[in-house]
């Protein structure tokens, strides 16, 4: 990703301050039930007073997404997995499909003009007893209030879901109870969005040109609180053109066919359920360029509750059929009823929550665990070859796939939901041909994966302003191979390795063997002209994180060949063993990059790239002294406040502290997830940094979960199994940490970390 937020400076005192803050926060928490998490840990709510800082939540099932909105009835941007706009001159971007959530309501005329609910100001004058709740356990959004307009009051409750049980299906369920008799109107719409204006040719514009174009259009790259991101001016959604649309009033149905700009076809249909015994009702279809709606005019009686449900079905090329099939599905759902759709959806989520992370002694951390895991689950798909973008199914980072998928999100899913982790590595195998072509174009062998991969076809989609990252921040290739091998180690599925993992691992090894050059005088291999993971350091030799990752990928290729009975290229082992890893004089600690690099900063990755050497998937072999010296140099001096302001920076430091046995410092770093300002209310949306509001930053969510799965536990996935590589750690106020229903090599197990009678933290396992 372009330019992570900088952090650094400070001394050990910052760790102590953070530890004290953590203790105070934990002591204020409410304990969870030892048998499972409290129900409160799954409930995130907003009142009317919270709407000023309202950061939208996210409803999704990995295939379809939509954002939450305060009234619960507005049309919001919606996206479908890997449905991309390929406008010439631009990078690919997710095409917004027609908004499907709108259900508008009007209390009807009463001595003058009347207004619509979705246009009424969000004020106490119009909305009384307001409450909106995102239920993480059941993945539903429930909004309730008393809507007041021109003296008429209507109690409203809205429930919205994107089905986990039937992935092509979503529903909005509306109840109204008027305190008056008379006419009302409702409108159930599918709303095509206009093409965003202006459109910028980001595949061709330099950074300064982009900034000039943004300014010339009266836009800015700064965020507008509470819920817009920096770079919103260039991270706008792509366009879906509606090619045909229609509706039928008697059958209460709507349907449309569309196509992403220069991309794939999609379709959508809705079937609306109206109350029985509708009095004085008239149903009509409205259809124009920007609205397809089923409008209902009816009479209501005071105190009677009227129930409506809008069932919506989706498809796109390669996933489902067409509008006719979608309509059949929506109508079948209507026939079965909302309670059945809701029950099946909740049952599917209940099954997902059987794998969980439970914390006793810290209600806040338990709730955050559930929100982080909820957003990962809502953004991923089981047993497919679709990836997870750094910001899920939203326009953030244009839904492109970075190393975040392999190194941050994949490990967080691997033990809890291996079928979803498998989809991420399957994407890399599916797109290996695009990576091969990219390597050939640059004169290298094997596969060279993009810095920003298109989620549908795997092509390079880095905007021209960040061209240097696409060409030279090449550690992503090692990250791909490491994830493939981690999946094999966790599954021991040799057939999968041969058919799926090995092609990607082999081609990555061929790339590194051709990319490294031999320095004869020094009798070693080196990797020149790279962009460091500390991204302000461009065109440097021997970035340490890149080199150790490349060596790891080559070693993995040799090991995979051995497992499969293949003959590895002898060059792979030779390069891996002789690849230069920069160390300080005497070999006491790692350097961030080649010592020839002068006057460069290693502080622009949350305090420097040395912390990344502690990533659990890399699982770098180090002596105890080298590990501690790296911590003293590259981790401990960092300021907690600055590190915590960038959510991607916290996990490596928490995990690093675990590996040296410092529980207090691990807890202090971990506390930064709550104190750093990257968790946005009211629905615990994790952002990339405290200020830029890049929402649904799943990379940060993955890091949070890794801090628990591999940090406090000390676990590592190795050939020997799920190994207790480091002593477990438990923050002082916590009673226990339980990793429930993990799956590893065909077994299900619970891992519990707690203090024994003498106060020693111990890890115990229970195999189901």
Quick summary of this structure?
This protein is 31% helix and 23% strand. With 768 residues, it is an alpha+beta fold.
Description:
The chain has 768 residues and is α+β, with helices and mostly antiparallel strands. Helices cover 31% and strands 23% of the residues. The protein is built from 18 helices and 28 strands. The strands form 7 sheets. It has an 11-stranded mixed beta sheet. Helix 10 (475-491) packs parallel to helix 12 (544-564) and helix 11 packs across helix 12. Mean pLDDT is 92; it is low at 1-35.
SSE layout:
Layout (H helix, E strand, L loop, with lengths): L11 H16 L15 E4 L11 E3 L3 E4 L10 E3 L3 E2 L7 E4 L6 E4 L20 E9 L4 E10 L2 E11 L6 E10 L3 E9 L16 H10 L21 E11 L4 E8 L4 E9 L8 E7 L2 E10 L5 E11 L6 H14 L1 H15 L3 E5 L2 H17 L23 H12 L3 H13 L1 H10 L25 H6 L2 H17 L2 H22 L1 E3 L4 E3 L17 H21 L5 H9 L45 H11 L5 H5 L5 H10 L3 H13 L3 E2 L4 E2 L11 H15 L2 E4 L2 E4 L11 E9 L2 E9 L5 E7 L1
Parallel strand pairs: 6-13
Antiparallel strand pairs: 1-8, 2-3, 3-4, 5-6, 7-12, 8-9, 9-10, 10-11, 11-18, 12-17, 13-14, 14-15, 15-18, 16-17, 19-26, 20-21, 22-23, 24-25, 26-27, 27-28
Helix pairs in contact: 1-17, 5-18, 6-7, 6-10, 6-18, 7-10, 7-11, 10-11, 10-12, 11-12, 12-13, 16-17, 16-18, 17-18
Q: How many E strands?
A: 28
Computed Rg: 27 Å
Unreliable runs: 1-35
Question: What is the CATH first-level class name of the largest domain?
Answer: Mainly Alpha
Q: Using the coordinates shown, work out and report the CATH topology of the largest domain.
A: Glycosyltransferase
Proportion in helices: 25-40%
Structural class: alpha+beta
Distance between the termini: 41 Å
Overall pLDDT confidence: 92
The shape is globular
Q: Main β-sheet, in a few words?
A: 11 strands, mixed
């Amino acid at each position: 990703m372009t330019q992570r937020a900088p952090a650094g400076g400070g001394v050990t005192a910052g760790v102590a301050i953070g530890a004290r803050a953590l203790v105070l926060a934990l002591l204020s928490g409410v304990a969870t039930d030892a048998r499972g998490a409290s129900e409160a840990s799954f409930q995130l709510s907003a009142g009317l007073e919270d709407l000023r800082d309202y950061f939208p939540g996210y409803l999704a099932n990995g295939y379809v997404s939509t954002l939450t909105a305060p009234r619960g009835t507005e049309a919001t941007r919606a996206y479908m997995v890997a449905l991309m706009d390929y406008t010439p001159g631009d990078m690919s971007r997710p095409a917004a499909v027609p908004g499907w959530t709108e259900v508008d309501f009007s209390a009807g005329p009463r001595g003058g003009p009347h207004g619509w609910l979705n246009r009424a100001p969000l004020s106490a004058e119009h909305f009384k007893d307001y409450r909106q709740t995102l239920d993480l356990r059941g993945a539903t959004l429930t909004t309730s209030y008393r809507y007041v307009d021109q003296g008429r009051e209507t109690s409203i409750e809205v429930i919205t879901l994107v089905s986990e049980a039937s992935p092509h299906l979503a529903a909005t369920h509306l109840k109204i109870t008027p305190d008056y008799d008379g006419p009302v109107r409702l409108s159930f719409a599918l709303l095509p969005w206009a093409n965003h204006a202006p459109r910028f040719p980001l595949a061709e514009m330099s950074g300064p040109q982009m900034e000039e174009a943004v300014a010339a259009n009266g836009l800015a790259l700064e965020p507008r609180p509470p819920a817009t991101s920096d770079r919103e001016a260039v991270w706008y959604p792509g366009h879906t053109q509606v090619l045909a649309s229609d509706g039928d009033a008697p059958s209460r149905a709507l349907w449309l066919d569309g196509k992403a700009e220069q991309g794939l076809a999609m379709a959508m249909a809705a079937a609306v359920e109206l109350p029985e015994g509708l009095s004085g009702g008239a149903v009509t279809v409205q259809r124009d360029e920007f609205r397809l709606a089923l409008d209902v005019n009816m009479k209501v009686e005071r105190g009677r509750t009227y129930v409506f449900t809008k069932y919506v079905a989706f498809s796109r090329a390669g996933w489902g059929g067409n509008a006719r099939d979608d309509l059949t599905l929506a109508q079948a759902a209507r026939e079965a009823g909302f309670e059945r759709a809701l029950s099946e959806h909740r049952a599917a989520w209940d099954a997902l929550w059987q794998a969980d992370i439970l914390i006793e002694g810290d209600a806040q951390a338990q709730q955050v665990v559930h929100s982080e895991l909820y957003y990962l689950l809502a953004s991923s798909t089981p047993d497919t070859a679709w990836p997870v973008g750094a910001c899920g199914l939203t326009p953030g980072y244009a839904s492109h796939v970075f190393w975040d998928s392999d190194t941050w999100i994949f490990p967080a899913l691997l033990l809890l939901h291996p079928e979803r982790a498998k989809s991420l590595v399957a994407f890399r195998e599916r797109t290996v041909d695009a990576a091969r072509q990219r390597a050939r174009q640059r004169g290298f062998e094997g596969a060279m994966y993009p810095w920003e991969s298109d989620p549908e076809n795997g092509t390079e989609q880095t905007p021209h302003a960040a061209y240097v990252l696409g060409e030279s921040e090449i550690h992503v290739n090692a990250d791909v191979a490491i994830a493939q091998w981690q999946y094999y180690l966790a599954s021991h599925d040799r057939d999968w390795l041969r058919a799926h993992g090995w092609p990607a691992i082999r081609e990555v090894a061929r790339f590194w063997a051709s990319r490294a050059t031999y320095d004869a005088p020094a009798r070693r291999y080196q990797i020149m002209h790279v962009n460091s993971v500390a991204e302000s350091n461009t065109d440097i030799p021997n970035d340490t994180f890149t080199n150790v990752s490349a060596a790891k990928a080559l070693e993995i290729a040799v090991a995979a060949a051995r497992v499969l009975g293949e003959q590895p290229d002898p060059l792979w082992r030779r390069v891996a063993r002789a690849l230069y890893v920069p160390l300080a004089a005497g070999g006491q600690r790692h350097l961030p990059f080649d010592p020839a690099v002068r006057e460069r900063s290693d502080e622009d990755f949350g305090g420097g790239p040395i912390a990344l050497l502690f990533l659990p998937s890399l699982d770098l072999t180090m002596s105890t002294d080298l590990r501690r010296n790296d911590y003293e140099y590259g981790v401990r001096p960092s300021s907690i406040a600055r590190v915590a302001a960038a959510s991607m920076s916290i996990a490596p430091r928490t995990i690093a502290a675990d590996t040296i046995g410092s529980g207090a410092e691990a807890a202090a770093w971990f506390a930064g997830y709550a104190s750093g300002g990257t968790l946005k209310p009211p629905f615990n949306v994790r952002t990339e940094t405290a200020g830029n509001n890049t929402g649904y930053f799943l990379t940060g969510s993955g890091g949070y979960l890794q801090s628990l799965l591999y940090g406090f536990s000390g676990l590592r996935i190795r050939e020997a199994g799920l190994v207790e590589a480091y002593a477990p750690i438990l923050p002082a106020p916590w009673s226990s940490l339980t990793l429930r229903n993990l799956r590893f090599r065909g077994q299900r197990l619970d891992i519990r970390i707690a203090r024994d009678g003498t106060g020693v933290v111990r890890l115990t396992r229970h195999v189901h």
